[in-house]
Amino acid sequence: MKKIKGCCTLFLTMLKIGLFTFGGGYAMIALLENELVEKKKWIEKDEFLDVAAIAESTPGPIAINTATYIGYKNAGIIGSIIATLGICIPSLVIIYAISLFFDAFLSLTLVAYAFKGIQICVVYLILTAGLKMLKQMKKNTFNMIIISITLICMVVSSLFAVKFSTIFYILLSGVCGVAVYLLGKIKKEEKQ
Of 15, 72, 86, 150, which has the highest C-beta tally within 10 A? Predict the structure, then answer.
């Protein structure tokens, strides 16, 4: 009975996140953190940062990957299925409903203005989530170098209109992290 109640809570939480977040996975990060870390206390802040990094690095939307992990952590495979469905169902239903009368929907002036307002809110949500994660990140030399290099590369590629996929930034940062880890391990072995 306790497991069923836990699964229901998990489903309703993910349903709420999926229903009230506009702008995709990145916009959901702030809401995910608020619900999972602050309110439900299902994971710690450090673990959330790790989950967000892993969810971003693996195939699929970050919000769905995060929900799947949280579901698995709380209720195993059934929990991961329930959490994934909970976060996906609202988007599926809304997009399906919109697709039925998409052209008429977009031609409404009120809807066009609503989407312009939502776009501004999405930028705010993504920026807020990024700044929160930046504040919570450990401020060591390696992390600051990676952030600085990535920021400089993004600005330069934007200024010169060079297309450079964010996936490469993630992969290069991951390779750098593994390299630093291996170098540290080698140094420890040499000292021993």
Answer: 86
